């Protein structure tokens, strides 16, 4: 039985003191693949270092996170885009819109998102979307930019049941994370009648730790807690959740 963490920032400084220990524990417990989304120009090197140390397990993505969009957005995008020519990346991410932290650069967020979607279509890569408090706008941009090669994951999906179905019809998978284990998180209701074939597992470590670690530092090993909760909700064995979500993850990232 093995698991894929489709969204983890194990390169973050929160793990500087014990990264090897935490990575080795996850691998020993069956987490075989770690997909690492980039966030800004400063996170690239730490991310690539981790991929170098764990070449069989870690797979990098490249993109500019919406919370990293500021008045220097054009310069950042210019630097990030150059990386696609330098080595292989498995997705364009994480990209999207964040209306929770700040609306100061909303217009820039939208144009950076669209620009990076264009890259993904050109290079033929999946996108990994951050959509905090912005599910509706993200969905309408995806509709507007519809293309047969446009695909990917709604990371930390937080919409309702109708939005879940819309996202799936647009060719996207739902990234299921720690929120599923939260009391009154609402995600259980949103995915009640959604088939496992539309879902992948993720932690978003070091953020959003699942119960019983809620509020603490998250790590990829905890993807097991999310898988257990999903198995319970869907009334299937843990091995079935492992098998189907692993298959979905490796297919979307072409691994
Ligand atoms: Zn993330």
Can you walk me through this structure?
There is one protein chain. The chain has 255 residues and is an alpha/beta fold. It has one domain (3-252): Alpha-Beta Barrel (TIM Barrel), CATH 3.20.20.140. It is 38% helix and 14% strand. The chain contains nine helices and eight strands. A five-stranded parallel β-sheet has the order 4-5-6-7-8. A three-stranded parallel β-sheet has the order 1-2-3. Strand 7 (172-176), helix 7 (187-190) and strand 8 form a beta-alpha-beta unit. The relative contact order is 0.16. The mean pLDDT is 97. The protein binds zinc ion. Zinc ion is lined by residues 7, 9, 37, 94, 204. Residues 7, 9, 37, 94, 204 line the site of zinc ion.
List the SSEs and their pairings.
Blueprint: E1 3-5, H1 19-28, E2 31-36, H2 44-53, E3 58-60, H3 73-82, E4 92-98, H4 106-123, E5 127-132, H5 135-144, E6 152-154, H6 161-169, E7 172-176, H7 187-190, E8 199-201, H8 223-234, H9 238-252
Parallel strand pairs: 1-2, 2-3, 4-5, 5-6, 6-7, 7-8
Residues 7, 9, 37, 94, 204 line the site of zinc ion.
